[in-house]
């Protein structure tokens, strides 16, 4: 196998505007990268997954995970709404959220994002909502480039977590986390559904993922993050 990598911020945050500027992110068979925010005593202080996906996916999954009694409406966004119930005990902990709309925001994940030189992911967390935008490098709003981000310039978000959920009672004191996992619960179970990821003879998808990660280190040259900056405005 290969060791997973996880970086966790020393500071914690409640509310803010979080701007990740990246040139490249991990992708390829066996990978499960994520950029996310996590509170203590999960799930009581919430989890916000800003960038997440597996293997050779070209589409970002944006989700939130909480304890009971947090639902969102799924409106006011460009992303494709998947689930309204954020409760981690429901729906096999899939959380509430959306997948990116590749027509509205192409090259938002994986190889596509890396091939265009990346861009910025912006997350706005307030008492009323959590919103996520992605801008490829050539479309980054001028206020972001100038260091005085103005959310009124950003337009329709990729994901809009807003509804009957009381944000402040479910989200607090979050660390910023960047990690690259291999196989595991999502990537291992989903491995066989990716036709470009090889199966081991006589082995199921999960075990084939483990075999691939362990036996082909030369195939992980793209499994890295290249980050210019992470800025938090409060």
TrEMBL record:
Annotated keywords: Hydrolase
GH16 domain segment(s): 1-234
GO molecular function, one term: hydrolase activity, hydrolyzing O-glycosyl compounds
GO biological process, one term: glucan catabolic process
Hydrolase listed as a keyword: yes
Keyword Hydrolase: yes
Entry protein name: Glycoside hydrolase family 16 protein
Pfam entry (one): GH16_XgeA
């Amino acid at each position: 196998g290969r060791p997973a990598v996880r970086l966790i911020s020393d500071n914690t945050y409640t509310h803010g505007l979080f701007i990740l500027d990246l040139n490249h992110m991990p992708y390829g068979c066996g990978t499960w990268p994520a950029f996310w925010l996590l509170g203590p005593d999960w799930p009581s202080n919430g989890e916000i997954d800003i960038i997440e996906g597996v293997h050779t996916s070209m589409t970002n999954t944006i989700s939130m995970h909480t304890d009971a009694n947090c639902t969102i409406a799924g409106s006011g966004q460009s992303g494709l709404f998947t689930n309204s119930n954020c409760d981690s005990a429901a729906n096999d902990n899939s959380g509430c959220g959306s997948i990116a709309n590749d027509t509205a925001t192409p090259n938002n994940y994986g190889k596509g994002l890396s091939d265009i030189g990346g861009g910025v992911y912006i997350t706005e967390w307030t008492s009323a909502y959590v919103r996520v935008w992605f801008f490829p490098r050539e479309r980054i709003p001028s206020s972001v480039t100038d260091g005085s981000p103005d959310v009124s310039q950003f337009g329709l978000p990729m994901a809009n977590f807003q509804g009957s959920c009381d944000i402040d009672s479910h989200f607090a004191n979050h660390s910023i986390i960047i990690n690259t996992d291999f196989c595991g619960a999502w990537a291992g179970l989903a491995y066989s559904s990716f036709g470009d990821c090889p199966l081991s003879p006589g082995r199921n998808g999960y075990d084939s993922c483990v075999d691939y990660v362990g036996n082909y280190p030369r195939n992980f040259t793209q499994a890295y993050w290249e980050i210019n900056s992470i800025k938090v405005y409060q």
